[in-house]
Amino acid sequence: MRKPIIAGNWKMHMTVPEARELINGILPNVKTRDSVEIVVAPTFTVLTSVADAIKGSNVSLAAQNVYWEESGAFTGEISPLMVKDAGCSHVIIGHSERRQLFGETDETVNRRVKAALKHSLHAILCIGETLEERKSGSTFKILEKQLSGALNGVEDLAGVTVAYEPVWAIGTGMKATDEQANEAHGFIRGWIRDNYGASAASGIRILYGGSVKPDNVDGLMAQPDVDGALVGGASLKADSFSRLVNFKPV
Ligand code: PGA
Q1: For the segment 73-107, what is each residue's pLDDT rounded down to a tens digit?
Q2: Per the structure, how many domains does the chain have?
Q3: Does any domain span residue 250?
């Protein structure tokens, strides 16, 4: 059985007092939810404050990005060692905003994934097609390209979770239908089976991301190949994120 993951991507939101208020609002509502892995991904400047707040709880901490070098003259970058030092066990890699706005490529995503795994950080690898790519029928081709690029030279997927995030569904309110999500996840799992074998395919968690909300999470989580959600907007309020964590598959 794959343990579902509900992960909140706080993106570029939250000062320290706001982050403390948010996490302190979430913790009491999710503390008995042992059947779900709960992850929050705050911005770098509030990681240590959130790390303090979640100590001893069932919530894990993720960074939103990581550089591949351990230290050195790389002004503005943050290394895997620093991310771990700040209390993170997970890191989001290759989010479409990084790909689209900050020049991230399959090659740089691959370097980050390898660096994360080398330092025992669990990589939440984001992939997904644009609207044009979906319309032109190339969704699976794009997913395959992103998977093979990001995982090039990665031999073991034990430290990897894949997040399928169609770009057209992120922040738009246009969630993929449950069937579209499940279909893409099935493709991803099939690719993993072909390249890593049956046990890697049945063990890997595949999250959906893109306009997941309290009113659509239950149907999504009922899909057989959907193992959780990576959530932006709805993770910024304690009540809505808590509701997502406490999903009830229908
Ligand atoms: P959204 O973002 O939930 O606001 O659509 C999802 C994401 O970018 O991970």
Answers
A1: 999 999 999 999 999 999 999 999 999 999 999 99
A2: 1
A3: no
CATH number, domain at 160? 3.20.20.70
Q: Is 48 exposed, middle or buried (0-12, 13-18, 19+ CB in 10 A)?
A: middle
Most ligand 1 atoms within 8 A of CB, residue of 165, 170, 174, 237 to mutate: 170
- In a domain, residue 162? The reply is yes
Atom of ligand 1 nearest to the CA of 96: 8
List average pLDDT for each run of 10 residues in the chain, which is 250 residues long.
Answer: 97 98 98 98 98 98 98 98 98 98 98 98 98 98 98 98 98 97 98 98 98 98 98 98 94
Domain contains 65: yes
- Which one, of 204, 164, 160, lies nearest residue 181 by Cα? 164
Range of the domain at 116: 5-245
Least Cα distance to 98 among 124, 117, 72 occurs for: 124
